[in-house]
Amino acid sequence: MNYNTLGTSGMRVSPITMGTMIFGNPLDQSHCDRLVAAALDRGINFFDTADVYEGYSRTWGSQGGASESVLGKALGAQRHRAVICTKFGNPAGTGPLDAGLSRRHLDKQLEGSLKRLQTDYVDLFLAHRWDASVGMEDFLDTCDRWIRSGKVRAVGASNFPVWRIAQAAELARLSGAPKLQVVSPKYNLLYRGVDLEQNACAAHYGISIVSYQPLEAGILSGKYLGEKAPEESRGSEKPGWVPKLKPGDAERLTALARMAAGSGVTSAEYAIAWVLSRLSVASVILGWRSESQMESALAATELRIPAAHLAELDTLFPPQGPLGDEKVLAWKDGAWALKLAEI
């Protein structure tokens, strides 16, 4: 296993991160215990969760916590072998104090997460989304206090507008505030907005990208090209979590399968390898239900896509948005919502 460093933190992580969003539902504790043990045995040391994750039980504003609890129990005495990333900010309730990046909310969520994860510290905290009602200085001050207390080792951001990433980096450079070591955007062949600005921004400031949904919720695996989603897939169990195919996608996915077959691998492995080949990407977050799916993800880390295929993929899947329009949190009309602009 080749390990990559997160930013300038010195923490070395596996290029595959075990995503735990469906821990608790549909995956029960015993199932997760086996998968986590198998991951550690194969050298996967990076685990991603969030305070609000509770698998298929999740609704906007539900309390969450299930994923962290299951992961904490699954790691148990092996906690020292794992780099745990968790995220706060998205609604963990329906009230005005139940989301965002205020010091009050973040302190409350950190204490809850530490208990659920059965640990004294979190290796990496990510702000789940930007909250425009909070000053960047105030947010970084909270991060600084956590790091000084030893409860958090490093900080980063998920789904931040690019200019906010740059703002945080400049404040850290000028004031000594904690540096964002990681940014975590959605990034895959069908969703390449990261290529337009965020890659260059991350590289300039020495920030690592830990991306999610490298398969676009399974679309890039090709398993949803048929009329019916396979059994025990997200498309059959939670169809609202899988994007609809757009015009031309079937042809592009067929071409992807052809290139992958030429290298003796699956479309999914090719799509994962493509993300891992991109500038500043240190790891990709993937969820799996079986050891065979995990082995497939690990195989992708050894794959090198030929230059001719990379050029063809650029033609088939050209870079496109979002560009600076990542959704931010806002309290509006008595509820938490996401909006495209801060003003």
Walkthrough of the structure:
- This protein is α/β, with parallel strands linked by helices.
- The protein has one domain: NADP-dependent oxidoreductase domain (TIM Barrel).
- Helices cover 36% and strands 16% of the residues.
- Strands 3-4-5-6-7-8-9-10 form an eight-stranded parallel β-barrel, surrounded by five helices.
- The chain is globular.
- The protein starts with a strand and ends with a strand.
- The model has no long low-confidence stretch (mean pLDDT 94).
Strand content: 15-25%
Output the number of helix runs. 11
What is the helical fraction, as a range of percent?
A: 25-40%
Decide which structural class fits the backbone.
alpha/beta
**CATH homologous superfamily (4th level) name:** NADP-dependent oxidoreductase domain
Level-2 CATH architecture: Alpha-Beta Barrel
In this structure, how is the largest beta sheet organized?
A: 8 strands, parallel, barrel
Major sheet: order of its strands? 3-4-5-6-7-8-9-10
Helix-strand topology string = EEEHEHEHEHEHEHEHHHEHHEE
Average residue-wise pLDDT = 94
How many discrete domains?
Answer: 1
CATH third-tier fold name: TIM Barrel
- Terminal-residue CA separation: 45 Å
What labels describe this entry?
343 residues, alpha/beta, TIM Barrel, eight-stranded parallel β-barrel, two-stranded antiparallel ribbon, 11 helices, 12 strands, globular
